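Changelog entry: the Pectinesterase record was regenerated in this release. Current contents:
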Amino acid sequence: MNIMMVQNISFLSLHLLLILLLCLRPLTTVADGNSTNIDGWCDKTPYPYPCKRYFIKHSGFRLPTQISEFRVLLVEAAMDRAVSAWDKLTNSSKNCTDFKKQAVLADCINLYGDTVMQLNRTLQGVSSKTGRRCTDFDAQTWLSTALTNTETCRRGSSDLNVSDFTTPIVSNTKISHLISNCLAVNGALLTAGKNDSTTGDSKGFPTWVSRKERRLLQLQSVRANLVVAKDGSGHFKTVQAAIDVAGRRKVTSGRFVIYVKRGIYQENINVRLNNDNIMLVGDGMRYTIITGGRSVKGGYTTYSSATAGSTYGLDTLFYAEYKNIGPASSTRWRVRWKGFHVLSKASDASAFSVGKFIAGTAWLPGSGIPFTSEL
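Regenerated structure tokens:
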């Protein structure tokens, strides 16, 4: 059951983006605000200049009286700039014929489309007028994803040496700086607020596991909606074909299970934005294997070359290895990110065990899934 799954990000349609803007812009906007009075608020952010610059050009907002109101303004600003960047990238792709530039633009359009979605859900969650409240933890997660998307776009351009082409397209939006300001302000609220979270409820489940998901975990076996088999004994021969069909279903509230029989599947999986609530189940890490063959050398960005995932080297990540074995276990050629660690002590690695990291002993036994709680 060790299949890696990615939600490779898909862009929203331009019509949907425009609808979102029209619906969301009235949340904090009123008549005749004086943008220069917001300088004091902007000075508290990591990047005051793009903050001030944006509000000088976009007057007519309500001056915030508290930090939570300022956060809403910042998210709105980031949302506006993200849509602008997405629009510029989309227009640039229309007449682009260079393969490498096309590859980068395709990734960046997808990434910025997801950035708009992440900012939209954040705005819906932090604005008191929508009635949809989210925790500051949720907002921090969504904003972090939005920022990561912009960084992944930039790194993809660097991978294929076309930064001089894509950078001017999005640089004027200052989107990364604006999202960083959102993260800083939200982080202040996160620290100041109560935002307490518990590891589990009275029955031992993590609080973020929904009631439907709990029932799914309590089942001894899971019935598959679709079966993938290389020998033709299933519904499809490729994982991507099954995922594409799952994405076309009308009702997406329930979990959609795809069983992938043992075999080596040579494909790069793309799980689009509308393909939510999909669960891949295999015959084990040594029997069901998905492997791709794309690389930067072949003209693909790191983002699009992933078999079932994407990697990016933000300083904030924590990437650790402990007692790896096998042909590729040597860390000599590992990335040199600040967040990369080799754990040598069992006491350090145990913090990431099933028992401690996800409180697995409290809720996994009922699922029938075999596991080891400690190292």
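The chain has two domains: 14-192, 198-309.
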